[in-house]
Design a protein that fits this description.
Layout (H helix, E strand, L loop, with lengths): L2 E8 L3 H8 L9 H4 L3 H10 L3 E6 L14 E4 L3 E2 L14 E2 L2 H13 L5 E3 L6 H10 L8 E7 L9 H15 L7 E7 L16 H13 L9 H8 L6 H12 L5 E12 L2 E10 L1
Parallel strand pairs: 1-8, 2-7, 2-8, 3-6
Antiparallel strand pairs: 1-10, 3-7, 4-5, 9-10
Helix pairs in contact: 4-6, 6-9
The protein binds 3,4-dihydroxybenzoic acid (DHB) and fe (iii) ion.
Length: 281
């Protein structure tokens, strides 16, 4: 059966793509953020995942405010990105892992999750930038399965629901008849708010507590209501739900988890830039 080898968590701010394209990753502003990644690159180089399940939120590229699935899964054999209006260069298309996509879709529906299955899907900065941070040459050595969570439009799924969704994904991956190694990545956050009266809101104390919880008590955030979580981390910081889904998948394996690396730096653009690597025993 397939095996989940760990979790990578990272912020996904579009300006990261600008810094990469302009060769500014070692400039004073960007260095503290990009310096968080060499240990992750070393790790993926050693463990060599075959597939990445990328849990993120779509920012209006596939789903706009008129049609917003709570949970959506890609089931395509290729995923391209497109001009999102941020001026980030387009990446090479990602090869899909269709067999895992359909296995996930079938298992999740059987477990009573009413997902949307997307046989055509574009991927945005929340998928492409984390992949480029792990594989800077952008010659993707892995296949992907994109999983989109609605962190954008109320009503949002609760943290508890997201964690359970992740656990169901984890059970499905580890019941996939394949010998492939699967990395589950969660992108977005941590605290930030891009609009309204609280634009610029950051919450370092909460972010650190959340990162600590992912190692010590992964269901910690599920005990807080979704509105209180939004109050704590901001209307876009709630992208941490993507991290919780990914962490739920690792939790479902029942195996011990080791934190191998983390980095936290405020701010990148308007966001608390955070990176974390958990390895499954
Ligand atoms: C920013 C952060 C995001 O998560 C995003 O999707 C877009 C922009 C920012 O801080 O600029
Ligand atoms: Fe975002």
């Amino acid at each position: 059966m397939a095996r989940i080898i760990g979790n990578v968590f990272t912020s996904h701010v579009p300006a990261i793509g600008g810094a990469i394209a302009k060769g500014r990753t070692q400039d004073g502003y960007w260095k503290p953020f990009f310096d968080g990644f060499p240990p992750l690159r070393h790790w993926v180089g050693e463990v060599k995942p075959d597939v990445v399940v990328v849990v993120y939120n779509d920012h209006g590229l596939n789903f706009f405010l008129d049609k917003m699935p709570t949970f959506a899964i890609g089931a395509a054999d290729s995923y391209s990105n497109a001009d999102e209006g941020w001026g980030i260069p387009q990446t090479k298309p990602f090869q899909g892992e269709l067999d895992l996509s359909w296995h996930l879709v079938e298992q999740l529906v059987a477990e009573e999750f009413d997902i949307v299955t997307c046989q055509e899907m574009l991927v945005d900065h929340a998928c492409t930038l984390p992949m480029a941070l792990l594989w800077p040459e952008q010659d993707w050595p892995v296949k992907i399965v994109p999983v989109c969570i609605n962190t954008v439009l109320f009503p949002l799924p609760t943290a508890a629901r997201c964690f359970k969704f992740g656990q169901a994904i984890g059970r499905a991956i580890e019941s996939w008849a394949s010998d492939q190694k699967v990395l589950v990545m969660g992108t977005g956050g941590l605290s930030h708010q891009l609009e309204g009266e609280r634009a610029g809101h950051l919450n370092k104390a909460f972010d650190i507590q959340f990162m600590d919880s992912l190692t010590a008590d992964p269901a910690w955030a599920t005990r807080t209501s979704i509105n209180d979580l939004v109050k704590a981390v901001g209307t876009q910081g709630i992208e941490l739900l993507n991290w919780l889904v990914a962490r739920g998948a690792l939790d479902a394996t029942g195996r011990p988890v080791r934190e191998l690396h983390r980095s936290y730096h405020i701010p990148i653009s308007n966001t608390a830039g955070a990176v974390m690597l958990l390895e499954s025993a």
